[in-house]
Amino acid sequence: MVFHLQVLNQKDVPKDLYFLAGKRLANRQTFRGWSSKAAETLEKMTQKYSNSSELWNELGVSNLIAGRNDPARQAFKQALEINPNDGYAKVHLGFIIKTIDLNNEDGIKLLQDGIQSKHPGTKDGRFYFHLGDALQRIDKNNEALEVYEEGAKIGLFLSKYQRSLYNVNSLTGQPWWTPEQTKNNKYLKLLEDNWKVIRDEGLAQMDAEKGTFLPEEENLREKGDWKQFTLYQQGKKNVANCMKAPKTCKLIDQFPEARGCTRGQVKFSIMQPGVHVWPHCGPTNCRIRSHLGLVIPKGPRIRVANEQRTWTEGQFLIFDDSFEHEVWHEGDSFRLVLIIDMWHPELTNQQKATLAPI
User: Fold this and answer.
1) Calpha distance 157→141 (Å, rounded)
2) Are 341 and 258 within 8 A, CB to CB?
C-alpha cells in the first residue's frame, strides 16, 4: 500500500497509473477494514476524475460501510448525475432512502429500476429484501411476494418465506419446531417447570422508575409499544441485567445451546395492546427461536410463513425466525414472553465456534 500511496502523492503521474494505484489502494484499505481511509482515497480520486460514475459509486459504498450515510447519499447522487441509468447507484440510493429516510415509495422506485437494470452488483439479496419489505409496508403484498419469489428463484433467498441472508447451506428449514426436534427438550422442560419464577423476574423489571425494558429499535413496528430486556446477546451475558434476573440467568446458564449462541439473544419481551409488527425475517438460518409464555392475555397472535398461532402461559412456542413472521396484539392487556435463541441442531461444533456473531 505504501507504493500506491506514494504514486498518489507524486506530481505528473500518468493518468492511467494514478487511476490504477488509487483503486488498488482503496481496495486494500477496504480489505483491512479501513473504510474511512478508503473513502478519503476515493474522495481524492474523484477530484481528478470527477466524471467517473464508477469512482463515485465506490466512494458511496465506502462511506456506507463507514456509517457515513449522508456522504454516501451524495456520492450515489453524483453517480446518477453522470449516468442517470446507473443501476448500481440506484439500488444503493434506494437502500439509503428506504432504510435511513424510511421513505418506502421513493425507495421502491429506485430499487425497482436498479434491479431491473441487471447491472453488475444489483443482484444482491439485500436489495430484493428491502424492496419486498418496502412494498409490504405500503400494502402491496402481492408485488412483494413476486419480488421474494424471484429472489428465491435466482438463489438469493432459501425460499420466498425464508429470506435470511447469513446462512449455512443444507440446514433443515421449517417454520415451526417442536422441543424434541430442537434436541434441547431437556433444557426447555427445565425452563417450563420454572416459568413462574421467570415470569416474576420479568414482571419486576416493569417498574416505571427502576425497570430496564428498552423500546424495540429495529423499525419493525407499524404501531404500538413493544419493549425488551436483554440478558444475553451474541453468546455474552449482560452481567448488569442478569443481576436483576438472577434466577432466570441461572437457568439459562444450564442451557449451553442458548447461553453460547453467538447468533442469538435471550431477552424478555413485553408487548402492549395495539402493536402490529411488520412481516420480517431474522438474519440467519443458524438459530431456532423459542418464546416461553409468561403473561398471555387473549388477543395476541403470530404468523410464521402461512400459519398463525398464539402463546400459552408456561409453554414454549418454537419457530425458525429466518422465515417471515408477523405479530398482532389485539387484546386489552400486555403480553410478556421470554425469548430464547438456540443453535440449529444440525450445526457442528466447529461451525458454532467459527460462525461470525450476529
Assistant:
1) 17
2) yes
Contacting residues for 211 by C-beta, under 8 A, at least 6 apart: 204, 205, 229
Contacts 24+ apart (CB under 8 A), 207-215: 212/241, 212/244, 213/268, 213/270
Q: Decide: 261 and 351 in contact? Cβ < 8 Å.
A: no
Cα 219 from chain centroid (whole Å): 11
Query: What is the C-alpha separation between 213 and 268, in angstroms, rounded?
Result: 8
CA angle 154, 160, 164 (to 5 degrees): 85
Q: What is the mean pLDDT of residues 245-249?
A: 98
Assign 238 to helix, strand or coil. Answer: coil
- The arrangement of strands across the sheet holding 325-329 comes to 221-223, 276-280, 325-329, 300-304, 307-309
Please enumerate in sequence order all residues whose Cβ is within 8 A of that of 256, keeping only pairs 6 or more positions apart, or say none.
Answer: none
* Residue 25 in grid coordinates: 489502494
Cell of 5: 500511496
Span 78-130, pLDDT tens digits: 999 999 999 999 999 999 999 999 999 999 999 999 999 999 999 999 999 99
Rounded Cα gap, residues 103 and 100, in angstroms: 8
150-188 pLDDT, tens per residue?
Answer: 999 999 999 999 999 999 999 999 999 999 999 999 999
Residue type (1 letter), 13: V
* 157 touches 128 (CB < 8 A): yes
User: What digits encode the pLDDT tens for the residues 194-225?
Assistant: 999 999 999 999 876 677 899 888 888 989 99
What span, in angstroms and rounded, lies between the C-alpha atoms of 110 and 124? 14
Assess whether pLDDT exceeds 90 at residue 20: no
DSSP secondary structure, 51-102, as one string: T-HHHHHHHHHHHHHTT-HHHHHHHHHHHHHH-TT-HHHHHHHHHHHHHTS-
